[in-house]
Amino acid sequence: MPDLSLALPLAASELTLAIGAMVLLLLGAFLGEKSARLISILSVALLIAATAVVIQAPLGAAFDGAFVADPLAVYGKVVIYLAAAVAIVLGDGWMSRSRIARFEFPVLIVLASVGMAMMASSGDLISMYVGIELHSLALYVLAAFHRDDLKASEAGLKYFVLGALSSGLLLYGASLIYGFTGSMRFEDIAVIAAQGDVGPGLIFGLVFLICGLAFKVSAAPFHMWTPDVYEGAPTPVVALFATAPKMAAMVLVARTLSEGFGGAHDQWAQVLILISLISFAVGAFGGLAQKDMQRLLAYSSIANIGYALLGITAGTEVGLQAMLMFMTLYVVDQIGFFAILMSLSRSGRPIRTIADFAGLKKDRPVTAIAITILSLSVLGMPPFSGFWGKFYVFGAAADAGYWMAAAAGLVASVVAAFYYLRIIKLMWFDAAPDQAPIDKAPVETKVVGWAAAAFAFPLVIVALVWLEPLTRIAASGFGAG
């Protein structure tokens, strides 16, 4: 029996969210749909409280090493909780505009956050799977949350079916790994891998495990669900998909491969290199043909996950730190993009196509400036934050000897720059379409838009003011590594 007096403080933030979610669910059921705004506010407060708890919680391992509370887990959970809180804020505004007031929306995000936090703290294959399934079940429902919309229902169904496939790959890989190592714990697996006892069976299990995890981060060629789900799911749900789950999955991939299979780096690095290269190509060239903004962001996320995986591929502490830096700055960019996207509409219809951005400078000049900054940051233009994320990742890969893969990533960045520059060109140089002007936003929508614009401007300063502190914080995540 584990010593709960030692284990419970380590999992204090997860317990806070789980108990809080149950309380909010009962409160919502008692008060009815009119409580949607109240439940959203309480959910945001709960996530902020969980952030404070995880920062103050002790470090260590519990449940025979199945749950790990270390600087990496703390770093990942802070980003996850804050990104989830922003998604709830965006979702509250979306529900008020869509007249879909459901208290279940923020509760589902809180429950998904519990699963994502479990992923960040996974110390063995069982806790890894429990965390993945816990967050996935909530995300399946969120993808189809707008049940009266055909595309949303289709997105939820596709995500569920393909998610079941990825779970099968994960379980099959985990069973092979257990069969050839005799243990589920990453620490025990690492000992066997370090001894050079990596046979074909263990390699097959590792490949299946990586393929299952690649689905969760929407890396190519396991990305088939991403464009359709991004297009069909409600915009605040897509904002969640693009941020918190990506961070959780990347922390899990880093922990699994570096802590569990560090001795088999030469084997899994080949698989990650291939996945990264395919993600570069699919994300860069696939995005060129897109007209829907959310599908475009889906292909952009595929390419960016390829860049992050390149940092893990390096197999060095510097590479893992670079991955954390890249994912943090990527989450910041995506939050700004989706917040601004949700604040724009014409004749009551949300702006969804790239062509709708034409002439935006005339109606919303401040918003146009914010989108320009975010676009330049995501494509990696210096001195914006996205440039520094790619700088660290490509540098770590080149230092580890994977300079050809880093060069391929640079080429993909140049190709992907086209669709971001196209948005900038439409906003600033093309005439506004012959249709209704941008709607005068309601108060709550206007607040979201201005907050997003204010959020975008500091990205210029990130490289000058916050980059060094952020680097030290990211380094602490693998300081013990």
Automatic annotation (TrEMBL):
<dbReference type="InterPro" id="IPR001750">
    <property type="entry name" value="ND/Mrp_TM"/>
</dbReference>
<protein>
    <recommendedName>
        <fullName>NADH-quinone oxidoreductase subunit N</fullName>
        <ecNumber>7.1.1.-</ecNumber>
    </recommendedName>
</protein>
<feature type="domain" description="NADH:quinone oxidoreductase/Mrp antiporter transmembrane">
    <location>
        <begin position="122"/>
        <end position="414"/>
    </location>
</feature>
<feature type="transmembrane region" description="Helical">
    <location>
        <begin position="103"/>
        <end position="120"/>
    </location>
</feature>
<comment type="similarity">
    <text>Belongs to the complex I subunit 2 family.</text>
</comment>
<feature type="transmembrane region" description="Helical">
    <location>
        <begin position="296"/>
        <end position="316"/>
    </location>
</feature>
<keyword id="KW-0813">Transport</keyword>
<comment type="subunit">
    <text>NDH-1 is composed of 14 different subunits. Subunits NuoA, H, J, K, L, M, N constitute the membrane sector of the complex.</text>
</comment>
<feature type="transmembrane region" description="Helical">
    <location>
        <begin position="38"/>
        <end position="60"/>
    </location>
</feature>
<keyword id="KW-0830">Ubiquinone</keyword>
<dbReference type="InterPro" id="IPR010096">
    <property type="entry name" value="NADH-Q_OxRdtase_suN/2"/>
</dbReference>
<feature type="transmembrane region" description="Helical">
    <location>
        <begin position="6"/>
        <end position="31"/>
    </location>
</feature>
<feature type="transmembrane region" description="Helical">
    <location>
        <begin position="126"/>
        <end position="145"/>
    </location>
</feature>
<feature type="transmembrane region" description="Helical">
    <location>
        <begin position="237"/>
        <end position="257"/>
    </location>
</feature>
<keyword id="KW-0874">Quinone</keyword>
<feature type="transmembrane region" description="Helical">
    <location>
        <begin position="400"/>
        <end position="421"/>
    </location>
</feature>
<feature type="transmembrane region" description="Helical">
    <location>
        <begin position="365"/>
        <end position="388"/>
    </location>
</feature>
<dbReference type="Pfam" id="PF00361">
    <property type="entry name" value="Proton_antipo_M"/>
</dbReference>
<keyword id="KW-1133">Transmembrane helix</keyword>
<keyword id="KW-0520">NAD</keyword>
<feature type="transmembrane region" description="Helical">
    <location>
        <begin position="269"/>
        <end position="289"/>
    </location>
</feature>
<feature type="transmembrane region" description="Helical">
    <location>
        <begin position="447"/>
        <end position="467"/>
    </location>
</feature>
<comment type="function">
    <text>NDH-1 shuttles electrons from NADH, via FMN and iron-sulfur (Fe-S) centers, to quinones in the respiratory chain. The immediate electron acceptor for the enzyme in this species is believed to be ubiquinone. Couples the redox reaction to proton translocation (for every two electrons transferred, four hydrogen ions are translocated across the cytoplasmic membrane), and thus conserves the redox energy in a proton gradient.</text>
</comment>
<feature type="transmembrane region" description="Helical">
    <location>
        <begin position="201"/>
        <end position="225"/>
    </location>
</feature>
<feature type="transmembrane region" description="Helical">
    <location>
        <begin position="72"/>
        <end position="91"/>
    </location>
</feature>
<feature type="transmembrane region" description="Helical">
    <location>
        <begin position="322"/>
        <end position="344"/>
    </location>
</feature>
<keyword id="KW-0472">Membrane</keyword>
<keyword id="KW-1278">Translocase</keyword>
<feature type="transmembrane region" description="Helical">
    <location>
        <begin position="157"/>
        <end position="181"/>
    </location>
</feature>
<keyword id="KW-1003">Cell membrane</keyword>
<keyword id="KW-0812">Transmembrane</keyword>
<keyword id="KW-0560">Oxidoreductase</keyword>
<dbReference type="GO" id="GO:0016491">
    <property type="term" value="F:oxidoreductase activity"/>
</dbReference>
